[in-house]
């Protein structure tokens, strides 16, 4: 048995219990040829629903690995219910956002097209791949959902009424972000764990969030980050008109879009998410 | 006069008042050939001490630009007194840290060599160039100081007694970061604006921080981020033994070193820095 730290792999198949599990294609190639693992080496598997399982390689072929799944090492548990909507930017920075917000625990990535969005097309498969890789490396038990890009108006029209929308506005008229995040907590608004009309919620997320594990979560939030150059005035007025919208400011310096996304999510986690004392 | 948004340039020379100012070398090349500006176009200049000044190009030569500095558009003002010490990582990620922590308002970047630091050499000139570029773009009035790399033991031995050290520990035994940051504020410890024995403080920073503008600043802090793989146990014990050390945790996921640096600094700014309601 190898002394090397186990590789973690996200699999898109059920992990119902001990038994045999097969890897094929790119995952088999990655395990055998990139990570140079072989018979007797251990892996950790997770699928976003069934916790984390220890597995041992029992056989390898050219593009196939056979695993014996032995025992569950971590149970699935509730994760913070925070979405992040952002205007896609050029490729390297969008890769970066996908990786970093996954590490920082975002539940759902929502590319949103605004008037000043310069990205001509959004590669959601690439964003998903970046999210999977980050989830594998950061010990996370889920992979965030990656949405197809939507126009800002569509995002706002479909915004769930019981989900707060933290609007990171470049205009400095918003509330300081931490003040805004602590206010609802202080006034003890009822926690919301059901998105109501949001039929698009991914099956993997809803399945994992049974009522027994969501009880400690604060409530449902989304963060909205603008494009470089900001939202225009019409867009800003529409965002502010959303029922749960809370305009906030991220200080006096002009942040790049990727910096703003990371900063806002980190502060949210520290105040209301699973970095906070009482979550 | 051009309608284009003025370029911001950091200059390392005094800006005592209206008059003539010359640019040479790379900066002249950048203005003329990269940004394609010419006679009549406006620039904004800052040097970290004298505020921001509007200037107009009055003449250009092959590697020289002559400017008429006309009026001060922003006064110099106090900035949060927060340092960030981090183990350098591979080149692209160190570039990224230098850019992002500049945007996020760090006053001083301190590369620190730990037992598990893998970077064989640290290019501080490159870090400074990244910091200058980020400062120019984010509307900041200063460029953070970039230190030469030091060993962890030397950093800790010289740590000012009146400066808190927020130790971002991968071990989950630390206090949740926001709890730790709000505690000293809540208990109203006296604000500290003088580092005492820290003779290495940069002239540009001390010159700008006159007593009249530091009064609103909370106190002096430094954030310490470990290498990928973490500090070893001996190092962790030494850090915790520093008088002002506060070990904190950044949640249950394993963060990359660059993610941890950004997240910790953003949360610090939101709680105690110039993103907070009362600063």
Automatic annotation (TrEMBL), chains A, B:
Record flagged with keyword RNA-binding: no
E.C. number(s) listed in UniProt: 2.1.1.193
InterPro entries found in the cross-reference section: Alpha/beta_knot_MTases (IPR029028), PUA-like_sf (IPR015947), RsmE (IPR006700), RsmE_MTase_dom (IPR046886), RsmE_PUA-like (IPR046887), tRNA_m1G_MTases_N (IPR029026)
Any one GO molecular-function label of the UniProt entry: rRNA (uridine-N3-)-methyltransferase activity
Catalysed conversion reaction: uridine(1498) in 16S rRNA + S-adenosyl-L-methionine = N(3)-methyluridine(1498) in 16S rRNA + S-adenosyl-L-homocysteine + H(+)
Domain Ribosomal RNA small subunit methyltransferase E PUA-like, residue spans: 23-68
Purpose: Specifically methylates the N3 position of the uracil ring of uridine 1498 (m3U1498) in 16S rRNA. Acts on the fully assembled 30S ribosomal subunit.
Intracellular or extracellular location(s): Cytoplasm
Keyword Signal attached: no
Gene Ontology annotations for the cellular component aspect, listed alphabetically: cytoplasm
Protein name in UniProt: Ribosomal RNA small subunit methyltransferase E
Record-stated family: Belongs to the RNA methyltransferase RsmE family.
Keywords: Cytoplasm, Methyltransferase, rRNA processing, S-adenosyl-L-methionine, Transferase
PANTHER family referenced in this protein's UniProt entry, alphabetically: 16S RRNA (URACIL(1498)-N(3))-METHYLTRANSFERASE, RIBOSOMAL RNA SMALL SUBUNIT METHYLTRANSFERASE E
SUPFAM superfamilies: alpha/beta knot, PUA domain-like
One of the GO BP terms on file: rRNA base methylation
Ribosomal RNA small subunit methyltransferase E methyltransferase domain sequence ranges: 79-269
